[in-house]
């Protein structure tokens, strides 16, 4: 069994956990995996800049300092940290009305969001909020990413057609496409179709073929040879090279600005937390390795600090990039550091040819990224297996598409909490009765409901809290009323109860008084020590007495047989 959590040792610094122990014999494979990943990731992160609304070189910066920082300070041997479609879309959605896309003010705000996300991640490590990663269920995550995929894919249709679209949001962009379809530039469409054909064709031949790289290199060569810019096909133009300058985001450092960006930063924080933790867990389990969520929080925080101070946008743990490296043979962060070295060479010496890259080619790459995020298979599985949860996923996707990514992630969190509360609000409680062979089994709360004449064992299958206490009261009353014989003892089997809040304590006192008025003794079976302490704090133990708690069913039955009948 894989151990998927690892706590930092007090005798060692929590660094290089994704690299050590280092296997020298695996070095050639790691380097090859890093080279393969670079071929796949470079055109992909350039595409993410279109989603985020930043210059192309900013995408390369996300897999320079940030990726290196996580490789050094994170614990996962597999998690790849870089630009991500979900966080890029949230960034663009939040900043669309605050600054002109691509402007210096816009870039500064994008870097500030990365800084705020970094602070939240490191604060989460200090305070111990890593558990928040569990508050995005798989259901809403499928719906959220599907919504992001639809938004991203539809947002690139104008670029693939050579149409100017000024509207913000999915519906507005589709409306612009419909209104200006007559302005379609067919040579631009041809470039888009060629890129789509190459990428899809390479994928069908072999998933390991770097289709996006072949497409980008091919279209750059054609653009340079045939001078696409003279035919009306829009190209990137000059792409600045060189290392990113280390600087603090040049913004108005004021509380109103932080207050305005805080909801977006929180949304980004939750996405990073949920997506990165889920990916690290999956790969640690796959390869029977260990990782520490706390160490990864620090690594992710430092990676975003690196993004903020090098003028780029938020980075996140990416499941797609992680799978790219793993499928290429990467088994440690050495592969990612190799990618960093290759990107460094590209930034220093190879940005010149990017000037000839048609915008439509990037739009086509991003379009495919968006389509890949649309998880119809996952939605179909949810529909078949959990119909109510499907509607939660579908609603989340609809909110992302129709309203926005930031609102979608907040809505997803709220839905997850509501779904959790709904399950606890209506727990599937039961009564325990005897089998024909004398064994015990649980059954729905109907007649017959006594395990022995005069003894009811009622199993409450959830923590007791304010939302389900009325159900407790109603079911106790119904059981007493519908018992086939007079009830002398009423036992609450509490093996599933791990918490009792104040309202539940108040309700239990009322239940005890109700039973006492009917000459019925209230007792408990299989109460956890921590729960018994809570019952004691609420005065329940004093009401029922110390002899009302049993650790074994046989002890309960024996005590019931030797009871003193209450008159």
Tell me about the biggest sheet?
6 strands, mixed
Instruction: Please count the beta strands (DSSP E, at least 2 residues each).
Output: 8
Straight-line distance between termini? 56 Å
Q: Tell me the number of structural domains.
A: 2
> Could you say which overall geometry the principal axes of the C-alpha atoms support?
elongated
> Radius of gyration in whole Å, from Cα?
30 Å
Helix content: 55-70%
Q: Given the helix and strand composition, which structural class is it?
A: mainly alpha
Strand content: 5-15%
How many helices in DSSP terms? 23
Order of adjacent strands in the largest pleated sheet:
4-3-5-6-7-8
pLDDT averaged residue by residue: 88
Overall description:
- Helix content is 59%, strand content 6%.
- With 567 residues, the chain is mainly α.
- The protein has 2 domains: 24-352 and 362-420, no CATH class; 430-561, Transcription Regulator spoIIAA (2-Layer Sandwich).
- A 6-stranded mixed β-sheet has the order 4-3-5-6-7-8. It has a two-stranded antiparallel ribbon with strand order 1-2.
- Helix 19 (469-482) links the parallel strand 5 and strand 6.
- Helix 1 (27-52) runs antiparallel to helix 2 (56-62), helix 5 (104-127) packs across helix 11 (255-286) and helix 19 runs parallel beside helix 20 (502-517).
- The longest helix is centred in the middle third of the chain and has 32 residues, at 255-286.
- The two termini are 56 Å apart.
- The model is unreliable at 6-12 (pLDDT under 50).
